[in-house]
Design goal:
Ribosomal Protein S5, domain 2, Alpha-Beta Plaits, 6-stranded mixed sheet, 8 helices, 29% strand, binds 4-diphosphocytidyl-2-C-methyl-D-erythritol 2-phosphate, binds adenosine-5'-diphosphate, EC 2.7.1.148, transferase, ATP-binding
Length: 276
Amino acid sequence: MSITKVFAPAKVNLTLHVTGQRRDGYHLLDSLVVFADVGDRITVMPAEANRLEVIGPRAAGVPTDGTNLVARAADLFGVPVHIVLSKHLPAAAGIGGGSSDAAATILALSDLIGDTRLPEGVSELGADVRVCLMRQAARMRGIGEDVAPCPGLPPLFAILANPGVDVPTPEVFKALEDKQNPPMPKRIPQGMKAGAFIDWLATQRNDLEAPAIARSPVIRDVLDALADLPGARLARMSGSGATCFALFETEDAARAGASALAQAKPEWWVEAAKLS
Ligand SMILES: C[C@@](CO)(OP(=O)(O)O)[C@H](O)COP(=O)(O)OP(=O)(O)OC[C@H]1O[C@@H](n2ccc(N)nc2=O)[C@H](O)[C@@H]1O
Ligand SMILES: Nc1ncnc2c1ncn2[C@@H]1O[C@H](COP(=O)(O)OP(=O)(O)O)[C@@H](O)[C@H]1O
C-alpha cells in the first residue's frame, strides 16, 4: 500500500427543485449537479492506527474527531489509515464539502486496498455522497440516491461566493413552506452553447433559496452583488446555502468579476471556478 491523494471538488447545484417529502421527513429532489475545479484535498496513507489531521485555509471549526465525514467514510473499510484533509472549501455552505471529502476518502481507500466495490453504509454518510462519488455532471433525484450522469452540458465559468454564515441544511428544509414543487423537464438540454444553456437554467429554480434568505438575509446581498458584476448571466444559491454562484460566458469575465468582488467584500470567500 502507498500514499493516495484525491481531489474533493466543490459540488454546485445548478438547480434544486424540491418535489415532495417522504414520511421520514427527507425531501424529494430534482437537481442538476456539477463539480468545480476548486475543492479540498485528501491524502491517505497506511498506518498502524487511525489518525486524522485537518489543515489548510478553511480548517477552523471542522471536526477533527470521528464525526468528520472523512473519518466516518474511512471507518467503512476497517483498515487503519492516516488521513490528511486539506480544507479549502467553507463548511456547512451548500457546496458539499463534507460529502465530497467523504466521497474522495472512499475513492482513495478503494484505490489503496485495490477493491473498487463500494462498502456497506455509504448512503448513511449523507444524501449528497452518491453524487459526489460520480464527480461529473449528474441529475440527482429521490433524496439523493438516484443519480444519473448528464452528459452534453457546456463547461460553465462561474464565481462562487460565501458570506461566512453557516447554514445548517435541516433548518432550511424545515423552513421551506411548499414542499410540492414541479420537477425539471423530463429532458435536460444537451449540446447547447454556454449562453443558451444559461438562459435555460434561468427558467429553473433553487427552491431552498427563499427559506435560506429568510434565515440568513445576507444571502440576498450575495446574490445581488453577483448579479451586478459585468457579464454575470445568472446568480443563484447552491444547495441549502449560503454559497451562491454567478455564471458567465467567458473565463475572463468570471476571473475579472471574482477579483472585483474579492476586493469589494474581503470578508467573503470568493473563487472563480470552471464547472463541469
Ligand atoms: C441540500 C443538498 C442538495 O445537494 O446539499 P447541501 O446544502 O447539504 O450541500 C443535499 O440534499 C443535502 O445533502 P447532505 O448534506 O448530504 O444531507 P444529509 O446529511 O443526508 O442530511 C442533512 C439533513 O438535511 C435534510 N435533508 C437532506 C436531504 C434530503 N433529500 N432531504 C432532507 O430533508 C434532513 O433534515 C437531513 O437530516
Ligand atoms: N470533512 C468535513 N468538512 C466540512 N464539514 C464537515 C466535515 N465532516 C463533518 N463536517 C460537519 O458537517 C457539517 C456540514 O458541512 P458540509 O458538508 O460542508 O455542508 P453542506 O452539507 O452544506 O454542503 C459541518 O457543519 C461540519 O460540522
